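Supplementary notes for students who missed Thursday's class. We covered one full example, reproduced here. Read the sequence, then the structure, then the short commentary at the end.
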Amino acid sequence: MLDDDPFAPPPKKALSLEAQLETASIGELEARIEKLKLEIGACEQAIKSKRAQREAADSVFGGRPS
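Structure (token representation):
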């Protein structure tokens, strides 16, 4: 099988977050921040949607017991 090449280099280990931040340029860090902000926004929107679904279900089924 081709995947069993004994001379293939070992897989690279992923850098820790600390190492990634240390070696990144200012531009790369700014881009990373923007990407994370977009991800946070998507998460916040998903939470709002899930809360709305829960509230709709609670209004139909009488809510969840405490």
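Commentary. The mean pLDDT is 91. The helical segments are 17-23, 26-61. If anything here is unclear, bring it to office hours.
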